Amino acid sequence: MGPAVDNPIMIHASPVSLRHYGVGHASHTHEFVQIVVPVQGALCLEVAGRQACLTESQAAYVGAGAAHAQEARGGNCSLVLELDSAEISPALAENLAGQRFFSLPPGASAFVSYMALSLRHRQPSALMLAQWKSLLLAELAPGDSLPGGRLATLLARIDANPAAHWTIAAMARTLGVSASRVHVLFQHELGTTPRAWLVQRRCAWARTWLETTTLPLADIACRAGYADQAGMTRAIRHETGLPPGAYRRLWRELETKPQDPPTRRSSPFVS
Prior knowledge:
Elements: E1 9-10, E2 16-20, E3 33-40, E4 43-47, E5 50-54, E6 58-62, E7 68-71, E8 77-83, H1 90-99, E9 101-103, H2 106-121, H3 126-140, H4 149-160, H5 168-175, H6 179-190, H7 194-212, H8 217-223, H9 229-240, H10 244-254, E10 269-270
Antiparallel strand pairs: 1-2, 1-10, 2-8, 3-6, 3-8, 4-5, 4-7, 6-9
Helix pairs in contact: 2-3, 3-4, 5-6, 7-8, 7-9, 8-9
GO molecular function, one term: sequence-specific DNA binding
Protein name: Helix-turn-helix domain-containing protein
Domain HTH araC/xylS-type: 152-250
């Protein structure tokens, strides 16, 4: 691949981001691990001397220190996951490094689509990004021992059925551990409490449905697991400064301006 003539544009400055690549990005290395997944168009990569052109549901693993270059022509977008070497288990790292290019399992492919959709609308919280990383790694290596992997099954089940009555006791039964152990796992792996995580996730679900559907507010509150619409209203107002109806209207008004949605916390930048 030729010399760089166009740098990748990152939509979000975070460990999980969407990037558009240009023609002939020069070969380079970095000290962290990357997993690169095209979500629109095709992306050609060279990693440690091996080349492949990837499309949706295919991925590349770029190990720490591995020389790599990428090139894309026309409209394209890729989801890029950046990890410290300690965040990925040795067994999974060895497996992916041996393949370098691989097809995503169905669960991982669906989760990548969800992440890409979310990133196009707003900057997720640091807590959500950490959860995304753990969940995607768990999908790539079911049964492997991953940082955050002990909670991955629980978090996925809650995301699949947020309206359920997710008490600490219910979480403990799902994990097969004691209630006190649930608190320990959340603190150790996510740096928060089960209740704080659930509050944040319910608000995130509600905001996503407000942004992307025409569901009545009461239905959204029920789907997100709130006891009533008033509970959702308090949460959305606390998070955004607006009640749900006003938040939805503002989002609709600014929907045609993706560079400046109502919850954007940083401007696009070039790296």
